[in-house]
Amino acid sequence: MKILVNQRPIDFEIGVTETLKDVVSLLNKWTAEGNAIIVDLKIDGKSIQLEEAINSPLKIDEIEVLEMELQGVEEMVKEGLEEVENYLPRLIIGIDQIAELSRLKEFVEGLEWLNEVITKAGSLMKWDYNKLCVDEELIEKKRDGLVEIASLLKEKVENKDMEGASTILKDRVKPLLEGWVEALPTLIKKIPKKEDTQALLSKLKGVSSRFPDLSKEIEKISVYLQTGEMTEAMEQFQKTIDELQSMIHLLQEIRIFFDLDYRVIKVKEETIEERCQELDELLSEIITAFENEDIVMLADLLEYELSPLLSRWGEVITAVIAEVEKRIN
């Protein structure tokens, strides 16, 4: 069976799987790990729904070509929210023209679609609408307003109560939708841009090459301390600690930006989280020794613990880079 992704053939190890269900489940997991979504699926040129394919008993030796069209999560969310942004002004203008139940029903469907897009965007981007605010109002509160209004208007449609619906439309719907017109640009700005992604990756690659030099600089500081050259030692010490703390901050920024789980990404037998914790705890010990003016302890920690530790930290950054590149390619 030949597999095409966005019209390009790929080599994908499907193991001992025998059915379409198994293959599509594997591919779906693979695309999710790459922060993408299957938006179209074809078997020998015929479209099939993803859910149908996942439950299909069809044997893979009965299939010649499996085609998938993928779309990045960020791209999909941006397109959806921009569509809502363009649709909202028309929805607001249409409020004054609703004079019959059929139009009201269409309007309610529009509100439900609006809520569906916003809810899906939050889920895909892992946004917490209970913490995200626009003009000091939680996005979740705005979303709850959409759900409530749609439900009230739906009830008016079922009861054929145009008079009650008109009051709700006039007093509550217009201000609610105008609030969403203001909120949407904030959501769209939260979507990572390609240039942001590349800039962070470039920073990370720059950090990777620094660790061998940092390890040597740490040894030099220890020598300064042992020979009593305190001014040189303290100046270099402060500069190096600041750089290390910036690197740790960058790793955390990348973890959040790319939604990485450092608890499962491994370097040899340790996870990234364990390596970060090890470095963080050692830096705390070093800073304590510095604050206590314990020069002997400080020199020993730098030479015998921090320097060897940093000499191995390039492999940590390499592992993070590999994970990031999997997500953006």
Record keyword descriptors for this entry.
about 325 residues; alpha+beta; Ubiquitin-like (UB roll); five-stranded mixed β-sheet; 12 helices
Uncertain stretches of 5 or more adjacent residues: none
The total tally of domains equals 3
Alpha-carbon Rg, integer: 28 Å
Which percent band covers the strand fraction?
5-15%
Kindly report the average pLDDT value.
86
Number of helices: 12
Work out the helicity level.
55-70%
The total strand number stands at 9
Shape: flat
Largest sheet: 5 strands, mixed
Distance between the termini: 24 Å
Structure notes:
The chain is of the alpha+beta class and 329 residues long. The protein has three domains: 2-71, Ubiquitin-like (UB roll); 76-189; 194-328. Helices cover 68% and strands 10% of the residues. It has helices spanning 20-33, 50-54, 73-94, 101-125, 139-158, 162-189, 194-208, 211-226, 230-257, 272-291, 295-311, 314-328, and strands at residues 2-5, 8-9, 36-43, 46-47, 65-72, 133-134, 137-138, 266-267, 270-271. The strands form three sheets. The chain has a five-stranded mixed sheet. Strand 3 and strand 4 form a beta hairpin. The radius of gyration is 28 Å and the shape is flat. 19% of the residues are buried.
